[in-house]
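INFO batch 0412 | record 1 of 1 | parsing
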Amino acid sequence: CNCRCTWNGVALKSTSCYGFANMVFYRLFGHTTYSKTTKVISNISASSISSSYLYNLFTNGTVKPGAHIRNSTHSMIFMGCDSSYIYTYEGNYDGHCKVGVIRRTWDEMSTYLKSKNGISYIQMPNSYPNTNPPTNVILSIDKSLFCYLNHQNI
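INFO prediction complete | emitting tokens
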């Protein structure tokens, strides 16, 4: 799977789920995950992950919508969460280049990340577009980006 190695002439230096996450990150923040970013979380082992740990991590303001989440084999973009679910935007989530918004309960996300050996890192831009973004909201992916990614014209 090769989900756009370049975007409007910008070399994303990545393919598959990471290429997709990098392209979405670029569309949201104007630069790739290779520059102007901070790893707000690094090397969280599977044994450290629980539903309550993840809920606190994603609701305490450390991780904001648009963040790039990387585990040992997969990349995704954090869209938002509520008391029951965490929402991510993922390319190649099924191993066959499928793109979609994935809704997981906190228990499902915990189980998923444990199966992937934890969290390698979570990246945020050094300068987030809004210094006081709302919490517990879902990042909206505009129609043109969604349609482009699904090779559709709506």
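INFO post-check: Residues 142-154 have pLDDT under 50 and may be disordered.
INFO record closed
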